[in-house]
Amino acid sequence: xxxxxxxxxxxxxxxxxxxxxxRISGRHLGRxxxxxxxxxxxxxxxxxxxxxxGERVVEPYAESEEExxxxxxxxxxxxxLAPTGNVQCRCNHAATIPRNDSSVNGAADAGKCVDxxxxxxxxxxxxxxxxxxxxxxxxxxxxxRICVILPAYNEEATIASTLEAMPPYVxxxxxxxxxxxxxxxxxxxxxxxxxxxxxRNRGVGAAFNSGIRTAHETGxxxxxxxxxxxxxxxxxxxxxxxxxxxxxxxxxxxSRFMDPRIVPRMSRVxxxxxxxxxxxxxxxxxxxxYDVSCGFRAYSRDALDQLNLFGKFTYTQESFLNFAFKxxxxxxxxxxxxxxxxxxxxxxxxxxxxxxxxxxxxIVRTYRDYRPFRxxxxxxxxxxxAGLALFAFLAVHYARAGALTPHxxxxxxxxxxxxxxxxxxxLGFVLDMFARMRINQEQILYRLKKLDK
Length: 453
Hints:
With 453 residues, the protein is an alpha/beta fold. The protein has three domains: 8-109, no CATH class; 124-369, Spore Coat Polysaccharide Biosynthesis Protein SpsA, Chain A (Alpha-Beta Complex); 372-451. The chain has helices at residues 26-35, 65-68, 102-109, 159-164, 184-190, 204-218, 237-245, 268-285, 301-306, 316-326, 352-370, 372-401, 408-451, and strands at residues 8-9, 40-50, 55-60, 75-76, 94-98, 146-152, 172-178, 194-198, 222-225, 251-255, 297-300, 330-334. A hairpin with a 4-residue loop joins strand 2 (40-50) and strand 3 (55-60). Helix 8 (268-285) packs parallel to helix 10 (316-326). The longest helix is centred in the last third of the chain and has 44 residues, at 408-451. The chain is elongated. The chain starts with 7 loop residues before the first strand and ends with a helix.
């Protein structure tokens, strides 16, 4: 990005109307990219209307006189840009089109808008509380580099206030735009965050995984995950960082219910649902948890190297079980949060039946992967008990009536249940062997990640 084509153009204000939204077709981008010799093309796009012909014309346009005026009073349309992915462009934003970039060319050929809203990096006069690049002069939180992940879906109403409230020791902010249809990605990119774009809504779990992969690239020592809906206060991040920096935990999570004095306001259904889920996860993991569904968490890099998640709908309960089964130290930190979103309704827990179904599926699958013998042995015991009850019923009937008729069905049903129980027990043994292989593979993957640093 250091070799940038510089072009100074006059920008008479009487020739340019209010900037309007425009989508640039792949054909138009192809002609422009092919006609320029430099590696990076900087486009400033604006519209003006030809009142006589009624046509819409594309012209160069500098973003603002205050920041782009050249020495001779003309607008300098050069800007240092941070690529932010395929998002809807606005005509008063700069854009970068790297030459020979297959992902950009492919998107352009598909007629999609390509990187036409990338923000200029802030200069010293407008410095954000975080940086999209490496900056050794920035404050470091107790010798640890901090990266914050913000999964977001249609959060244009709160994303700006969340980003602006980030503490100065946060080195990187990654916003995962999970298929938003509003200006979430544009606002986040304009404020200096690194934006990861999903073409469609894939779920909070998938957004979290994308954020983790990007956070690894930043080289952060501690990764903080929080929602972008205004429920969490960024100034509380240090409360989660301290236990990790001090070595008291590898995974620190905010707890809304650990301290009765700071329990947030929410519906009774959600309150009791959270408590039930915490008891369930705690029972499976073999220890007590107060809140396993809060999305405000901090992870050491070592903990993230051991984390392997597959659920796309959510990640909260699965990560608890994943860490508990691997012996990663977990600490709950009482933190006061909002009980409801600042705007709109929850995309995860908005439909409680849907939430219960997908969450139960994720929990069962996780338990199956790490404790298969216990799961299938429990099913086998239940089947054996049901079969034994049918045999007992048939035996009592035979003792009284001296014949099996008319309840021979109980004998056949009991035998069938015993067969199913035996099959489940055998399946538990087989899957237990696969679980051991899985654990070995994850340990190998963990060591490879450590060597890759």
